[in-house]
Structure formats: C-alpha cells, structure tokens
Specification:
Helix content is about 85%, strand content about 0%. The protein is an all-alpha fold. It starts with a helix and ends with a helix.
C-alpha cells in the first residue's frame, strides 16, 4: 500500500469499529434475544399436542428457512410501504433477523428438548408434576445445556449476517465502509478492513463460546 492508502486505513478504522460497536452489535444482540424467545415458543408449539399451533409453527419455519434472508429484509423494508406500513431501517432489520433466528433456533431447541431421555418426563410425572412443570423445571434446563453450543454458533453467524442490513440503508459496519469507499474509491483495502473488524469480533465470540462450552462440559460431567 502507498502512503495515501495507509492513511485512509488509519483514518477509517475507528469510524468502522465504532459503527460495529454502536450499530452492528446492538442489532445482533437485540435480534438474537427476540429470536431466542420466538425459537423457544416455536419449538414448544411444534412438540405440543395442539394441531393448530403445530401447523402455524411449521409453516413459519418452512417459510423463513425456505426463503433468502435478503429477500425477507427487502419485503419488510421496501415491500410493506406499498401497503402503508413504513418501518425505520433498524426496526425492519430487527424484525427480519429476529424471525430468522426464531425459525432456525426453533429447530435447535426442539432437537435439544427431544434429546432429553423420556425417563426424565416419567420421573417428573411420578412426583406429581404436570407437563408444564416438568417442562419448565426438568426438561428445559437440560435442553438448554445441549442447545447452547449450536445457538452460540447461530449468534456468531448473525453478527456476520448483519452486513445484509446495509442493503436496507441501516448504517452498520459494512454500510459505513461503503460510504468511505464512495469517497475514497479504495474498495479493496476498505472492504478488507471491514472484514478484519468482523474477524476481530467473531474471534472474541469464538473464544467466549469455547469458554462457555468448557464450563458446560464440566457442569455436565460433575
């Protein structure tokens, strides 16, 4: 790189990093929190004995998993205004990512619940627990331990997927890098710089995930 390119990288690093801290991470965390609630509710609906709930849950998962996330964001942000529903970019992105996390996460949660031995249900019933009590006090705590590693992977993937929010004008890390590219015409180094910042954040998350899995492993073996 020449002196001008080096200076551009130095000048743009903090604005890009700040955008990741102020916009990318809050969007990812908020979407994951809401999506996790949706995931649990959807998983419970799928394993319930109520047909209408199972049907609604399965259709929701089918639609979200069967269509591209980018298309979903475009429908929410650009499509809904045609019927009078206008949403800010953050809200549109939050809805899109939350629905995605809910659909994919529900399969993780459902599998985790079904992986708990049936004997745990029977033991809970034998001491007088209702199905709801057994689920809340016995089954879900065990399922949570099983589902943490894949859900952590989903969160890391979500942090990277937030770059799609730039397509609906949400000013996160990638959108900020596009703005700088438009001024400097240095696409290669600036997009590479954005990739490095994503890598920094995901690397920290990988370390946290590894630590969490080790803690869970010790608790399960004890």
């Amino acid at each position: 790189m020449n002196d001008r390119q080096i200076q551009i990288v130095l000048d743009s690093f903090w604005p890009l990093f700040e955008a990741a801290l102020k916009y990318t991470l809050p969007l990812a965390i908020s979407s994951f929190a809401i999506g996790l609630v949706l995931a649990v509710l959807t998983a419970l609906a799928q394993i319930s004995g109520v047909r209408i709930l199972k049907f609604i849950a399965r259709v929701y998962v089918w639609i979200i998993r069967g269509t591209p996330l980018l298309v979903q964001l475009f429908i929410i942000f650009y499509g809904l205004p045609t019927i009078g529903i206008i949403l800010p970019a953050f809200v549109a992105a939050l809805i899109g990512f939350s629905l995605s996390v809910g659909a994919y996460g529900s399969e993780i949660v459902r599998s985790a619940i079904q992986s708990v031995p049936k004997g745990q249900w029977e033991a809970a019933y034998s001491i007088g627990m209702t199905r709801g009590q057994a689920l809340r006090r016995v089954i879900l705590p065990q399922a949570a331990r099983v589902s943490v590693p894949p859900l952590a992977n989903s969160f890391i993937g979500l942090v990277k997927d937030t770059s799609l929010a730039s397509s609906i004008t949400y000013i996160e890390l990638f959108y900020k890098s596009q703005q700088v590219v438009a001024r400097t015409y240095e696409a290669l180094i600036l997009y590479a710089e954005a990739a490095v910042i994503y890598l920094i954040f995901t690397s920290v998350l990988f370390v946290l995930q590894s630590y969490l899995e080790k803690r869970l492993g010790r608790s399960l073996s004890s």
